[in-house]
Amino acid sequence: xxxxxxxxxxxxxSKRFAIPAIILVLILVGVFVVRxxxxxxxxxxxxxxxxxxxxxxxxxxxxxxxxxxLIMPHQVKLTFGxxxxxxxxxxxxxxxxxxxxxxxxxxxxxxxxxxxRAEDTFVKARRAYDDSNQPFSEVDxxxxxxxxxxxxxxxxxxxxxxxxxxxxxxxxxxVKSAEADLxxxxxxxxxxxxxxxxxxxxxxxxxxxxxxxxLDDAKRQIDEAIIVAPYDGIVAQVFVTEGSRASADTTQxxxxxxxxxxxxQATVDEIDIxxxxxxxxxxxxxDALPDTTFPGKVTAVGPVGxxxxxxxxxxxIISVDTATTPSQRTSTNRSGGAATSPxxxxxxxxxxxxxxxxxxxxxxxxxxxxxxxxNGQNGNPATGAPPVGQQLPALTTLKEGLTATGTIIIEQKxxxxxxxxxxxxxxxxxxxxEVVAGAATEQRVVVVGITDGTRMEIVSGLQEKERVVIPKxxxxxxxxxxxxxxxxxxxxxxx
Length: 495
Prior knowledge:
The chain is an alpha+beta fold. It has helices at 2-41, 109-133, 138-164, 169-194, 198-224; strands at residues 51-54, 56-71, 75-79, 84-89, 96-97, 102-106, 226-228, 233-238, 245-246, 252-257, 263-269, 281-286, 289-301, 306-308, 311-320, 327-328, 403-420, 425-427, 430-437, 440-451, 455-460, 467-470.
């Protein structure tokens, strides 16, 4: 009995201590496990709704923008060299022609008659000149030699006959006659030995030159009455009609252009002109082809600016590279993670266009002409260049007078760390970014480099593939050590 009572009492005491322990455990679970779970359900994620972008390596450029018009530098207005009635116009506007093709001609009936007469006169004068240089033929020489020998033999016979006839007067007369014949024969032979008469040769040569000049003039008049294409090209305009009259060198007949050569005659704002120099690479965009850009190069920078409405700008010439395949523009994603292509740098989308000074669609700038090199016979697979005589498809849509923008690359960094420019806050020369650190963000000081207006180079302070916060509203960056982003103020694109 005592044993039983002891066991029962122990169980009662164990239950008394176990129940509070269980309750304590439940309370702790509620406090440290269940409560945080329910609290988390009602809490907002600190990164929810925040735009972020990854730190990536890309190429970044500083650019200057130039606005102007496309021109075809290789063009000519053709005229007749002579006057007369136009008998034939063989082309019309837009026709493609090859070098040497006949485009138009005057009535050359009378000129052709004059040419035939000049040719006949020249043939006769040339024959006379040849004769003066060779006055004696082989037959003439043989006859003269034979005549001289016969005269010598005849004189010898006459002397012998006179001597044997004891000084007969009649025989002496035969001697004198033979002596005269011999002298004539000797004179003729001396002329053969002396060769052509210089006076005769000079006179014949003078007559031949006169005939040659007349023949050349007749040919020139016919050539000037016919217009031929000086190079492969396209007829831009025809100014005359068949049956009308044309004056020598004054009546414009046909305008011919080379459609494979283009230049951008543009202007740059005075603030940016000091950064522009010949040889810089350019990305050219044409308003009429919004999805295509063409490579180019600055070939001339004008030394004299012009002022209009208080704005000073300088003329430049940019050659369009027609041997390289044009590129298609690329766009950035919403967070700014993708680098822009060269054709979209410099904040070009926010530019306000101002027409260039002293430049018209059909006029030049007075800086000279630039020419482009010809393509290879079979094209260039590496650059996409077409064979000689074949235009790139995009080039067929280019025309003189189209409005275009040249984005001039003045500085370029390749394979550098970049972030969207909006992610960088710069105040009093100190640049910072908000970096994603787990479920929160932290502010970090960075050293920045150049910017293209969309992305900014990070020299130090960030690592590749880290993520930065993109503020909902744009942050105005001030006092950036390497200069502000390249926007497009006025006519220039870098301020």
